[in-house]
Amino acid sequence: MGCFRHIDEIVAWSCASNKQKSQIIAKLPLRKKQMQGGENTQLISRKKWLAAEKRLK
User: Fold this and answer.
1) 7 in the Ramachandran plot: left (φ > 0), alpha (ψ -120 to 50) or beta?
2) Per-residue pLDDT tens for 8-30?
């Protein structure tokens, strides 16, 4: 299931401030709980990664 971060969060992680990272981390337990027993439909493909990079520039 991965780290439960959204693709935009993963792409922007290296540029995120400590406050932004803390806000993302705070959301992860709920996301993990919501995913239990479910299928991860947010698989990252190269196409999705490149699209996220483009959105964040």
Assistant:
1) alpha
2) 898 899 999 999 999 999 999 98
- Residue 56: CB partners within 8 Å, gap ≥ 6? 8, 11, 12
Reported as a pLDDT band with limits 50, 70 and 90, residue 4 is: confident
- The residues, ordered by sequence, that sit 6+ positions from 55 with a Cβ below 8 Å of its Cβ are 8
How far is the C-alpha of 30 from the C-alpha of 43, rounded, in Å? 18
Under 8 Å between Cβ of 44 and 4: no
For the chain, the 3-state helix, strand and coil shares in percent, each to the nearest 5, are 65, 0, 35
